[in-house]
Amino acid sequence: MTVKTFLLPDLGEGLTEAELVRWMVAAGDIVAVDQPIAEVETAKSLVEIPCPYEGVVSTLHGEAGQMMLVDEPFISVNTGGEEAAAAPESNGERAQSYREEELAGTQVPAGHAAQDSEEDEGSGNVLIGYGTGSAQRKTSRRRKPRVMGAGDSVAVQEAREAVRVINPLVRKLARENSLDISSVKGSGPQGLILRSDVEAALARPVQEPSASASLALGSPQASTATAAKTGQAAAVGDKDSRTGLPVASSELLAGVRKTIANAMSTSRREIPEATVWVDVDVTKLLKLRSKIKEAEGQAPSVMALISRFAVAGLQRFPELNSRIEVESDGSLRHTLFEGVNLGFAAQTERGLVVPNVRGAHKLNAQELSAEFARLASVARDGKAGVADLSGSTFTINNYGVFNVDGSAAIINYPEAAILGLGRIIDKPWVVNGRLKVRSICELTLSFDHRVCDGGTAAGFLRYVADAMTDPKRALATL
Q: What residue stretches are annotated with the Lipoyl-binding domain (predicted)?
């Protein structure tokens, strides 16, 4: 028989892992090519994984709720025939030492050369198309070996003696949690350290300091042990060591919440942001929308009309439709775009997501309104693809739907700005020297201070606000 193992596909946008939501097949089931076999969650969306093989399911390499790594075994299928099974070991591991990760192919470890020459008859690990073989895939990840001199022998020896882990992600997980990877006992072949080994080590309670160490209250070791114990998460029902209160729940962030947390942290850490805001009289805007609805039977949403003004504003202040990236040497690269991919914040049962309208600068208000509705529906159903939820260059956040006036929103990294819309409420407002009741909306703009100064940000915000105040005049010039 021939057993073929399908690796978790590259889901795009640099994603390296996905949470397995559910299997749609079981061991022993007959599957066809392109039949959906599982549902995974990544990039804040649900993605169905199709099977590239026809045959009988042999092994499912994971359970619901488990984080699966890209390029690791996902499912094995018995396709029949008399060829020898070419499936990898059940854990699908290929260890890399720390030095091997650093050198990225300076030396091809023993046994790997033959591995590289084999050709995978499967999908080539691409979600759509299944077009590339393993040789092509691995070439993109590893540079060609160089000729090594005598001075390299020490580094090679250290590489072979370094702690062996399943992949760099496991080492990163340990590093981010201040865990000494050399203290972890690997449960894989020949002591290979798996992700589960690191997670188990992180979950173990902190050891009490010895009697002699506890006497040395001023020692760094005692301080470190005390801090580690204090920061340890207590079990449900236990008292929290910091607050003394019973613990209602305690769990590691995963899936959507983990993705959101990482994105928000990156934005705050990388972007020096500033915020400007202004109150806007939108009475005329609401009246114009009502007239359009009466005349045509339907009208663009208020957010679509404001978005049209924002897109026009970005053409006049392009710095806000850009991004800054850090080069390998530490220098900053500022990239401006021709055209706008307009993101908008959408609250779903799975959490906050940001679908984006590609080529928003080409659409009128009615078309923008239709796209907002379509993408919001797809996102709430959890069916938005990676392209729907990535690649935006500017974002609008309508937090007025939550009945609040304003918010200093966090920029959707790596964009340069985010425009916020507050609720529309009636307020006393001075018009031509007279006090009147008008419909007022607060408009806020959070922007990356590296791409522009306050004058540019204020100019953009003022342009959008003026267009909202006098929409007929603004639409006549678009």
A: 3-78
